[in-house]
Amino acid sequence: MADRELIPTRIAYLDLLDERRLVHEGFELLDEKRMLLATRILRGLEQLAAQRKTLETAWQAVVDALRTALTAHGLQELTVWPPRSSALNVEEHKERVFGLTILSADASIDVGPHAWAAVNTAPSIDACVSVTRDFLRLGALVAALEASLIRLSDEFTRTERRARAVENILLPELEADLQNVAAALEALDQEEVVRVHALRPPDA
After folding, report:
1. Buried (b) or exposed (e) across 113-150, using 16+ Cβ within 10 A?
2. What's the rounded Cα separation, in Å, for the pair 165 and 15?
3. What number of other Cβ atoms are within 10 A of residue 204's Cβ?
4. What are 62-101's pLDDT values in tens digits?
5. What is the pLDDT of residues 166-185, one digit of tens each?
6. 13-42: string of b/e by CB count within 10 Å (b at 16+)?
7. Distance between CA 171 and CA 19 in Å, rounded?
8. 100-114 vs 84-97, strand pairing mode
C-alpha cells in the first residue's frame, strides 16, 4: 500500500497475491450486496407509489365524505356530534435483510361505543368516520414502508461508498504494489544472472 514499505521478496509477492484475491472477493460481495439492495429498493418504491396512490384516493374519500356531512348537518351539529372511541392497532412484521431490520405492517382500528347517545341516525357522519378510519389505517402501512426504504437507502449508500473505495483505491494500490515488487524481483534476478555469469571461470 502507499503508506507501507514492502521488501521485494518472493514471500511478499505471494502475500500480495493472496491479499489481492481476498480483497477482490470482498469487493464482489459488496457489489452483489449493492445490486440486491438496489433491486429491493426499486421494488419497494413501486409498492410505495401504489400505496400512496391508494392513500390519495382514501384522502379524497375523506374530503368528499366530510363535505357531504357538512352539507347535511352543518358545522354546529358536527361539532357536538357524539364521538366514538377508536384504537389504531399496528402489527409490525420484521424481516432481516443484510443485517437490517425491515418493517412492514398490518393495521386495523377497533371502534368503541359513542361517548353519549346520538339524537338521531346520521349515515353521512357514519360514512365520514368510516373513510377516515380507512385513511388512518392506510397511512400506517405507508409509514412502515417509508421507514424500511429509508433504512435500505442508508445501507445502500454505505455499501456503495465501501465498494467504490475498494474498487478505486484499495485494488489499484494492491496492483501497483504487485507491479513494484514484481519489477524489483525481476531486477534482482537479472543482477543474480549477471553476478553468476561474472563469477563463471573462462573456458580453457
Report:
1. eeeeeeeeebebbebbbebbbbbebbbbbbebbeebbe
2. 21
3. 3
4. 999 999 999 999 998 888 888 888 888 888 888 888 778 8
5. 999 999 999 999 999 998 88
6. beebeeebeebeeebeebeebbeebeebbe
7. 10
8. antiparallel
- E strand intervals along 24-150: 84-97, 100-114
174 burial level (CB within 10 Å; 0-12, 13-18, 19+): buried
pLDDT digits (tens, 9 = 90+) for 127-170: 998 999 899 889 989 998 999 999 999 999 999 999 999 999 99
Going from the C-alpha of 14 to that of each of 120, 158, 169, 187, the distances in angstroms are: 89, 31, 21, 17
Q: How many residues does the chain have?
A: 204
How far apart (Å, rounded) are the C-alpha atoms in residues 82 and 117?
7
Position 193 scores a pLDDT of 65
- CA-nearest of 170, 29, 167 to 98 is 29
Report which of 86, 70, 94, 200 is spatially closest to residue 132, judged by C-alpha positions.
Answer: 86
pTM for the full predicted model: 0.75
Q: Cα dihedral angle (153, 159, 161, 163), rounded to 10 degrees?
A: -150
For the cut 80, the answer to whether the pLDDT of residue 190 exceeds it is no
In terms of CATH architecture, what is 10-112+123-192? Orthogonal Bundle (1.10)
